[in-house]
Design brief:
Length: about 300
């Protein structure tokens, strides 16, 4: 048995988030096009007397260290499936914005799952890991898979998508988080009494990903949760405007927010848009990244 296993897991941006009407179970059917981006958390699993979690990073104080952390739940679910005790220490080196709409919590769940599987020598199949991921949360399967994928159902049923090039992004990190259930609740309020169409993936968007065409992707970005996120956090409008003024090709709230995403033409544009966003004073900080990024991967010891 190894002494420590470290797994690196990417953040995501939703390049299309089409949201249907609320289902009887409270979830929403989605056509959710995930794209993994090169901001990563690292989860290290080491043997311990009992399940414990620590976290380091600029936002570490905002990460719950109890059993509500998806990393802890992942260890518990995996151990329960194998009839063993989840005696592991999980250390999260956090670089993905917390509660930002970039699936940071989901990344830690997928990372802990893969790290514990390797630490405990379980060699679980991909299918079995994906089943546990889906149990952990709608975005967790994609954190394991990475790359690009269309998520249907509540977002957990994945079809991997081809990506024909590298896309350059800037992410503006807002002060404080937004609760995903609250944003979906606001979506329900804003769409009450209207006919919410069935969510479907945009052929133009899938084509833009396949051909690696940044201009076409910029024209096709959509997020049905954006009005709800802006309604709960009106100050995000100023961040989006600052990005447009700085020359971003397209702007978007990332998932349920409050992180905002800016698609730019190349690495140089990314640096200048990030600097302009920071100088605008409309966000806490800005990060540059590229996509696609690989899914969860065990790092060499
Ligand atoms: O699946 P996950 O636990 O990440 O979802 C968090 C919350 O986001 C859910 O409790 C629900 O309120 C909302 N959600 C939804 N429809 C989805 C995914 C999430 O309403 N497809």
């Amino acid at each position: 048995m190894s002494e420590a296993v470290t797994v690196r897991v990417p953040a995501k941006v939703n390049v299309q988030l089409a949201v249907g009407a609320a289902r009887p179970d409270g979830f929403h059917d989605l056509a959710n096009v995930f794209l993994a981006v090169s901001l990563y958390d690292e989860v290290t699993a080491t043997p311990a007397e009992t399940l414990t979690i620590t976290c380091e990073g600029p936002d570490a104080d905002k990460v719950p260290l109890d059993r509500t952390n998806l990393a802890a739940r992942a260890a518990e679910l995996l151990a329960a499936r194998h009839g063993i005790s989840p005696d592991v220490h999980l250390h999260i080196a956090k670089d993905i914005p917390v509660a930002g709409g970039m699936a940071g919590g989901s990344a830690d769940g997928a990372g802990a799952l893969l790290a514990c599987d390797a630490l405990w020598g379980l060699n679980s199949s991909r299918e079995s890991l994906l089943e546990i991921c889906a149990e952990l949360g709608s975005d967790v399967p994609f954190s394991l898979v990475g790359g690009a994928a269309l998520g249907t159902g509540r977002g957990e049923q994945l079809t991997e998508l081809p990506v024909g090039g590298t896309f350059h992004w800037v992410f503006a990190v807002a002060d404080g988080g937004l609760s995903t259930p609250a944003v979906y609740g606001e979506f329900d309020r804003l769409t009450e009494g209207t006919d919410v169409p069935e969510p479907t993936a945009s052929p133009a968007l899938l084509d833009a990903l396949r051909t690696g065409d940044t201009t076409a992707l910029a024209a096709a970005l959509t997020n049905d949760l954006q009005p709800a996120a802006l309604s709960l956090r009106p100050s995000l409008a100023a961040t989006l405007t600052a990005g447009t003024d700085a020359g971003a090709l397209a702007t978007l709230v990332s998932g349920s927010g409050p992180t905002t995403a800016f698609l730019v033409k190349d690495a140089e544009a990314a640096e200048s848009v990030a600097a302009a966003l920071i100088a605008s004073g409309t966000c806490r900080t800005a990060r540059v990244a590229t996509s696609p990024a690989p899914g969860a991967v065990v790092l060499p010891a």
